[in-house]
Amino acid sequence: MGNISGVIPFWKQRGETSFDCVKQIRERYGTKKVGHTGTLDPEVDGVLPICLGTATKLVEYLTEYHKTYEGEVTIGRSTTTEDATGEVVAEKRIEASISEAEIEKACEPLRGRIKQIPPYYSAVKVKGKRLYEYAREGIEVERPEREVTIYSLTLTGSPDFDEERSEIRVPFRVTCSKGTYVRTLAVAIGEALGYPAHMSQLTRTSAGPFTSSDCWTIEQIDELVKNNQQFKAMDPIEKAMHEWPSYTIDEKTEASVRNGAVLPMLKNVDEQQFALYNQQGSILAIYQQHPNKRGFMKPEKMLLGS
């Protein structure tokens, strides 16, 4: 299919792994250079931007983008996996409904910069082994604490009290930084209220500049492939890097950038890393302030060669 380069805002369905999605795209587009920009657990659906060709060079940057999720926390029951797929480990009957105001108060300290301990059933590595491997073997290890940022956490509906099961389901929306475990956040909401809890449902509605309304399902892509229109699903690299600091350079500087040259720093640039564009609006490279030569910049990632 020639030189493929771009990003597909893909809609991952429940029951699939993120790697399953990458495999599907590889097959449809006939290229090995494919990578996703942030793993989604099998039971979570939603926005999964997938990079093809030259765009795979940007995966490490795109995974840094803020992500937004809509989900549901069930208060009254906790599980081994902190979501609905695990075995129940603790239950506490809720005799009367908890008010929205009480839940809102429980969410207050969970906004901003917070510390999380990754769940046992996660892909975080400890001593060269993933936590879920230890969990399956029944081995307890010390899990590394990490700092994440919760940019917003809001309730999207009233608490739903299930008298029969003596539990409450609460719908919420969260925008957070890379590395946030929304499952662990759901558990923390329950703990703040004095109850065991787990995340009972989750959908990623946006990842950086891509939202659910931008996404293509595998069925839609198959239809495009059938009509030889598969490139319709691909967005240019420039859209993927839309939120990055960027600077447009003149033609003379462009020639040097295409050769990967170390150059004098552009005026009025404060950022450590930034994208350089040519006069036609095409992204050329990611440059950074030179670590050893003050007043100079050097290429970090070349995107368009000479």
TrEMBL record:
Keyword Isomerase: yes
SUPFAM superfamilies: Pseudouridine synthase
Residue ranges of domain Pseudouridine synthase II N-terminal in the record: 26-182
InterPro entries documented for this protein: PsdUridine_synth_cat_dom_sf (IPR020103), PsdUridine_synth_N (IPR002501), tRNA_psdUridine_synth_TruB (IPR014780), TruB_C (IPR032819)
One of the protein's GO biological processes: tRNA pseudouridine synthesis
Enzyme class: isomerase
Name this polypeptide is given: tRNA pseudouridine synthase B
Organism: Texcoconibacillus texcoconensis
Gene symbol of the encoding locus: truB
